[in-house]
Amino acid sequence: MALYAELHRHLGGSVVPRVLWRYLHRSESDLSARFPDYSEFEDFYTRPRDTLDEYLELHTLVESVQTAETLPYFIYRLMRGAYIFENLAYLELRYTPFLRTDAQLSQSQRIDQMAEIVQIVGEASRVKEYPIVSSQILCMHSRLPYEVNRAIVALAAQSDYVCAIDVAGGDAHYAERLDEFVELYVYARSLNLKTTGHVYETTEGCYPELLPYLMRIGHGIQIPLLQPHLLKEVARRGQCLEVCPTTYLKTGTMKDIRQLKQVFDRCFDAGVDIAICTDNAGLHNVRLPFEYESLLTHDIIGFEELQACQDAAFRHAFAWNYAQRPASMLTSLLKTEVGAI
C-alpha cells in the first residue's frame, strides 16, 4: 500500500549496492575487477566517510555509469524498490543532468543533451506496474560553470517532467560564488520555478543570503542547531526542512543520531515543518520506513510527530496535486464503503 512521500532523494545515490555491483560485473566495468566479491563492494559503498566532500566523491562513481543508455535500467529498479519496499506514493528525484551527458562532447553540446537526459529520466520513472507520482528536481552544482547552471535553470522551466531546482555539490563551496547563486535563484523565481537548496547541512554551509529564495530547505539542520533565531523567519515563510537522518552519520556531520532531537524539538516549537527523507538511499542501504523507525526507537520523535512530518511531506511536495495524502483518501474510501453496507 503506497502511503509515503519522499522529497529528497538523489538519483546518483539511489542505486542500491547490489544493483550497482551486478551492473558493474555485467558490463565488465573496470571496477568489477576491483570488487569481485559483493560484500567488499557493499562495505566500500556504504561505509561512513569523514567529511561531506569525501562522501560526495561516491556520486561521481555512479554518475559515470548513469548515461542516456543505462538510466532506464537503474530507474526501473529504483521505482520498483520504492513502491514495493518503501510504500512510496510520491517521489521527487534530484540530480544534475549535465553530469549524465556524454563527457566527450563540448560544453555547449552537453548543455543541448541535457534535455534528452531529462526526458529519459521522466519517461523511465513512469512505470505502470509501480504507480508512483514522480517528478524531477534539477540541481545546479557548485563545481559547474555559471553558463551550465543557468542552462539547468532554463531547462527546468521548459520541462513538464521537472518541478523545481536545487543547488548541490557541497554547501561549503558556495561562498565564493554566493552572488552568482543568488542571481540564479532570482532568475528561477522569475520563471515561476519552485526552489529548494542544499544549505545549512554542515557548519560551513550557513548562508542566510540564500534563504529568502528557497521554498524548501535541503537539510537545514544547522539552522536550529547554530542559528535558532532564524526559525521564526523560516516559519513565517512557510519553508520546510528536508531532514535526512542517516546522511549526517555517513558524512561525519554528526556522531550520534540523537543529536537530531534538538533539531526536531526546536523546529516543532517554532512551527517549522520537517519532511523526513533518505537523501541517498542506495549509498546508505537504507529505505524511508527505516528512517522513521530509527527516529522513533532513539526517542527523537514520537508517533504524533512522525505523523506531522509525514503530513508535511505531502503538503510541501512540489508536484502532489491533491488536497490529502493517500492515507486520508483511503480512510475516506473505507468510511464510504462501511456506510454503504
From TrEMBL:
What is the E.C. number?
3.5.4.4
Q: For this UniProt entry, what's an example GO CC term?
A: cytosol
* Pfam families named among the record's database cross-references: A_deaminase
GO terms of biological process kind: adenosine catabolic process; hypoxanthine salvage; inosine biosynthetic process
Question: Which cofactors does this protein require?
Answer: Zn(2+)
Which UniProt key words apply to this protein?
Answer: Hydrolase, Metal-binding, Zinc
* Xref: InterPro entries: A_deaminase_dom, Ado/ade_deaminase, Metal_Hydrolase
The Adenosine deaminase domain covers: 5-319
Looking at its record, which EC class is this enzyme? hydrolase
Q: Which GO terms describe its molecular function?
A: adenosine deaminase activity; metal ion binding
State the similarity comment.
Belongs to the metallo-dependent hydrolases superfamily. Adenosine and AMP deaminases family.
Q: By what name is this protein known?
A: adenosine deaminase
Source organism (scientific name): Phormidesmis priestleyi ULC007
Lineage, top ranks = Bacteria, Bacillati, Cyanobacteriota, Cyanophyceae, Leptolyngbyales
